[in-house]
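Q: Predict the bound structure with magnesium ion.
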Amino acid sequence: MPDAYNEFARICEKLETHYKNMQDVEFTIERNKLWMLQTRDGKRTAQASVRIAADMVEEGLITKEEAVLRVSPEQVDFFLHPQFSIEATQAAKEMDQLLAYGLNVSPGAAVGVIALDANLAEEWSKHGKAVIMVRPETKPDDVHGMLASEGILTSRGGRTSHAALVARQFGKPAVVGVVALNIDMSKRQITVKDKVVKEGEWVSIDGTVGEVYSGKLTTVVPDIEDPYLMKLLSWADEFRKLGVWTNADYPADAERARKYGAEGIGLCRTEHMFFETERLPFIHKMIMTDLPVARNEALDALLPFQREDFYGLFRAMDGLPVITRLIDPPLHEFLPDHSDLLRELTDLKIRLKEARTLAETDELIGKINKKQVILERVESLREENPMLGLRGVRLGIHIPELTVMQVRAIFEAACQAAKEGIDVHPEIMIPLTSHANELKVQREVLEAEGKKVMQEQGIKVDYKFGTMIEIPRAALVADQMAEYASFFSFGTNDLTQTTFGISRDDAEAGFLIEYIEKGILPDNPFATIDRDGVGELMRIAITKGRQVNPDLECGICGEHGGEPASIALCHELGLTYVSCSPFRVPIARLAAAHAALLDK
Ligand code: PEP
Ligand code: MG
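A: Predicted complex:
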């Protein structure tokens, strides 16, 4: 029916041109006559959405602004992670493989065999196995296992739990806080009600929606280098007012983020660097001793490692700012776990009772004494509320040698890089300040060290000292803080925790979900910035800070920095930039453009 066909094609063309959008049409042909029954904007996959928007600009049908607004940040996210195909999840659900739901904290689908501890995950991965690391929750010394895994699954923890943060940072799909999940370490298996999956058997997790399946589902990988997406994001860059920086601890992350369009590092969490195998013993020694001489010896040993880390970041970010945050977590996090130590001591004591030779007895006594010393230290560092305890700047004031070493490493690396022709912009960030005096005291010591290094090296580099704003008091007295800070970075993870008085690590797996379900809170404040409370504190801080210093650089490096609704608020508040994990950089570029375009 060529006549009907040609007429149909003509009408479709006309409809698409009229509506300036791809159409989904219904029609019928009756006795060679074409009848159009209905037309509406067509549904489309993420890839199709991007391509249609880009094509329509090329055809002159829509403007670049319209094209940018037509693609949602969630659709950009789709390009960044493997996904389960719709067919795969449907079939798995029909086969009763859907085990449980949890928090969707790091998007993408991952498939692997269960490994119940970090060492095993690493070992299996070295042997070419795809692994999903399953833990009740993760700690910094699990990071090597997490890196080796395809995905992470935990039964506890919230959106800013260690597992969630690390997973997002490294772009590993993760589902956390799966309350229904029972992890039986003695039987080396997981159970959900009557379903059992043993260590070494396959599971599939979907971090985009928070689903956990038994078995091996098929994944598909969209392409981030998709030329249409690249074009669309470059248009987005023309419209946005916010800078888009990245949270990156390692040069490889920085490089990836830069490829995705990051314009600086907004947060390098330096403590992660201490956990690598060859460095941890020195950190242990540094914590275990009170003698300045021994402490300095341990710090001297750490210096070259840190210098190397920072040098790598400056290289990767040639020409762009790099914000390094000084050590933040409480010291006990670097020492062995208290209950593990107690258990090990009990075991050793039982073995001592059963020792058969003098040599064995001596060896065991030696081991017990050593463990006892560590235990005493761990106990002396134990705090009821470590998140409100000796961490952040308080640690820097308590043990200035530690942050002085870090600043020396930053400046030595910056000077070395600058001598090699790299354009360095170091910015040093002091965490968890609440009083201007803390900032004054730390900055004085640290800046003096920086100047000393530049003198030694015979070269000057541009630098900034600034602070995180993550305690409500700091926001309220931001004018006083701005006297000693050249930049602010909102740590909205802690700022949310301290504003609500809700523990960021416990809340999401606990009552917070109930609050959201019951509509008491409109959103999870650890995912989307609470506009009226936390947002208001940010507004006060920016206003007061810029009254003292109109050029004050104000950014955000909490997890909210990669979340579209929070990015819109950051635009509204006039922030300089948002900083998010490398994998969220493209999303942030688009979300920032949306905020600017909708503001018009
Ligand atoms: C924050 O508190 O928002 C932040 C970025 O610091 P951390 O998550 O490391 O405490
Ligand atoms: Mg913080």
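A: Residues 431, 470, 491, 493-494 surround magnesium ion (ligand 2) (CB under 6 Å).
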